[in-house]
Amino acid sequence: MNIIELVKNILTGYPKISEFTNAIAVDFLDNSPTNFGLYSTGDELVKEDVLGNQTRRHSFILYASQQSYGDYDRLCNSSFLLDLNYWLENQKGQVVTTNEKTGELIKLSSANGMLFDIPTGNVNDGITYQLQIYAIYTLESEEL
Question: Can you give the pTM of this predicted structure?
């Protein structure tokens, strides 16, 4: 599983995810409530040793469209993103693969879980939150 597939799989495995969505799309978000979209925003090499082993950082944005009829809904939405943040921080050790290399997820972290957009201009129609997610992972060089 590459890093994008792995992070989507981890998000899908969050125990409370079914309370907020039935599926997480990649690079797509339907603005109706209970839709989640995971967007990959970049991958960078953090360091590489003389053997070719790499540590990489991949950035994502998770957009979540939810209902927002009142303060209670918005508090539940924000609390969900906070709990998801805590849960993500404990996910590590899963295998990451590319066509050429295999590695391990070292750390997941997230930031800026916040209101991003009111698509129709009316909060009663739903609002969109964003959560930035960062995955630190290794890739080992091929054996000679």
Answer: 0.86
